[in-house]
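We append the chain.
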Amino acid sequence: MAGLWFDELEVGQVFKHAIRRTVTETDNVLITTLTHNPAQLHLDEDYMRGTQFGTRIVNSVFTLGLMVGISVGDTTLGTAVANLGWDEVRFPKPVFVGDTLRVETEVIDLRESASRPDQGIVIFVHRAFNQRDELVASCKRTGLQRKKPASP
C-alpha cells in the first residue's frame, strides 16, 4: 500500500509528487464531452483565436481531477475511507493542451474522528504548477483516513 495512515501524517508535511503529466488534446476533448460541457472555450479553436487566450483552454474539471489524482499514490492510496469535500477550488491561470503539470500537496489539519475511533480527518492543500512554475490550480480537500491497524 502506497498511501499513509492517518497516524503517519503531520501538519506541515509537504509532498512533491514525482508524477508529472503533459495535458493532451484527448484529455480535454474526453472530459469536456463526458461531462456534456459544450463551452466554446474548450472545444472551438476558431472561436478561441479571437479571445485573449488565442487557443482553447483545458476544461478545469480535468485539471482538478488530475491534480488530486496525482496526489493519491503518496497520500491516500489504500488508506482513504472517503473524500469528504473540496473547498477553495481555484484556477489562477489557464491550462492549455501541451502544458506539463506537477503537483504538490501539504497537510494543513489533522483531527481525530469523534464517531470513528479507528479513523481521522485530514485536510490537504493541493497545488498544480505548469512547466513555467506558474500556479494553475489549487484546492483544499478534506478526507476521512484510516489509522494504522493495531498489531496483533
